[in-house]
Amino acid sequence: MRLILLLVVLGLSAPLSADYFSDEDLAIARELRERALVRDGGFDVVEDLTTRVGPRLAGTEADARAVAWAVELLNGLGFDRVWKEPVTFPTWSRNFERVRVTSPVEQRMEALAIGYSPATPEGGIEAEVVMFDDLDALLNAEPEDVAGRIVFIRNRMERSRDGSGYGPAVQARSRGAIVAAEKGAVGVIIRSIGTSTNRFAHTGGMRFDLGQRRLPAAAISNPDADQLERLIALGEPVRLHMEIDAQKTEAYTSHNVIAEITGATSPEKIVALGAHLDSWDVGTGALDDGAGIAIITEAGRLILDLDRRPDRSIHLIFFAAEEVGLWGGRAWAEAHHQNFENLQLGAESDFGAGQIYEIGARVLDEAWPVIEAIQRELAPLGIDLGRRQASGGPDFLPSLPHGLAVVDLRQDGTTYFDYHHTENDTLDKIDPVDLAQNAAAYAVLAWLAAQSPVDFGSGPALLEQERSRAQ
Ligand SMILES: [Zn+2]
To answer: Is 451 helix (H, G, I), strand (E, B) or coil?
Structure first.
């Protein structure tokens, strides 16, 4: 009698997944999870992409081959519909970069030009270095201390599981070359935005508005940045020579590639899984973001293998041109935001191949218990319930102001920034066991989100909820 009472009380206070999903839907979610774990998480997909296509900088010939590769892959897997949507952006490509200390001693520095860096004049530039702790210090500097010099920004990215050290550190890369230009500098060198102690540099993009003056800019490896700091600490003027050959061209049109599993009862409603197809030109873009392409493809493949279709549709979106400015994400938001009430949920995998440890979501209050119910099915994968907020991943950022509901499946990024945007981002860094855990989570999320008893509130409803909460 007491036991029954206890069960009743527990039943009232702790809702069960069965309160939100049918027994059959839950059984399928568990089957997807278990099947994913005995497979390799789509390792074959990232292996094929990084081998057959290799590095695939947006706007290059390899980008076009990647798009063709994606269309062929997704058609071959038997998705109900596969199509391309245009994405137009200015391209940039590097020929070479050379950075060396010329005084007080001669030493070559291991460097990579930052994306959209202009070329130096032929023969390069040589100037005295002026060092700043971070972008804020440069912002506060007097122009006469900067003019005619090469600016060196030395901030170091801190390592953490959630990658939170990246945001503050990356300011040096994204804005350094513009701020330094305003103060009359001739070039910019930054400490690589990465956590590796190996002697290779981390590239990445810079932010700029068309017409804004930019300076030649390069990142040097962490050990080279240490060395440069020590040379400066000696107290003698330190001079650097830098030479960059790179070019920016006018508009190029690539494509987002989208594959659909058509919903059985509400095909117009869509759960969108994303990853980006482009990569930097160094390494083979295995972790960034071949892993994401593999994870969502495997999740889609597992659901396609079921003997029934989900209620809502599931889309896989291979975004174009993420690295050089979120162009694919911007084009997708622009093309689809009128339809966001049907776009149920977005979730992008773009943080390497580490295991997922937490789920967070930005959804309507009424839908949060469904997220909790989904988390209970992810718990056996070691995934905890996280914050009631999410970004959905970089390519869904441009959709957030339109009210897209999003989920974050947060990956362990402890080592991600050892390889991020470097020559060392290669296939051997991916563990198929971790990849399978990721694919299992995305398959469960996509399936249950497609079967959810309530919508997640994308569009005006979600924006309204946020407005009223902010008041
Ligand atoms: Zn990425």
So the answer is: coil
Spatial separation of the C-alpha atoms in residues 282 and 290, rounded to whole Å = 13
Distance CA 470, CA 239 (A): 51
Residue 207 confidence (pLDDT): 83
Distance 321 CA to ligand 1 centre (A): 10
Domain-located, residue 27:
yes
pLDDT at 14: 58
pLDDT < 70 regions, the chain: 1-15, 210
pLDDT at 9: 46
Domain that holds residue 234: 91-248
> Ligand 1 center to residue 326 CA distance, Å?
10
List phi, psi (to 5°) of 452. -55, 140
pLDDT of residue 214: 87
Contact 281, 60 (CB under 8 A): yes
How deeply is 414 buried, as exposed, middle or buried, from its count of CB atoms within 10 A (0-12, 13-18, 19+)? middle
Largest CA distance in the chain: 89
The SS3 assignment for 24 reads helix
Secondary element (H or E) of residue 265: none
pTM for the predicted model, two decimal places: 0.95
Q: Note the pLDDT of residue 17.
A: 76
Answer yes or no: are the C-beta atoms of 402 and 332 closer than 8 Å: no
- How many Å lie between the centroid of ligand 1 and the Cα of residue 419? 12
* Dihedral sign computed on CA atoms, order 181, 185, 188, 191: negative
Same domain, 270 and 229: no
Residues 435, 334, single domain; the answer is: yes
Task: Kindly give the distance from the C-alpha atom of residue 158 to the centroid of ligand 1, in angstroms, as a whole number.
Answer: 19
CA 222 to the chain's CA centroid: 22
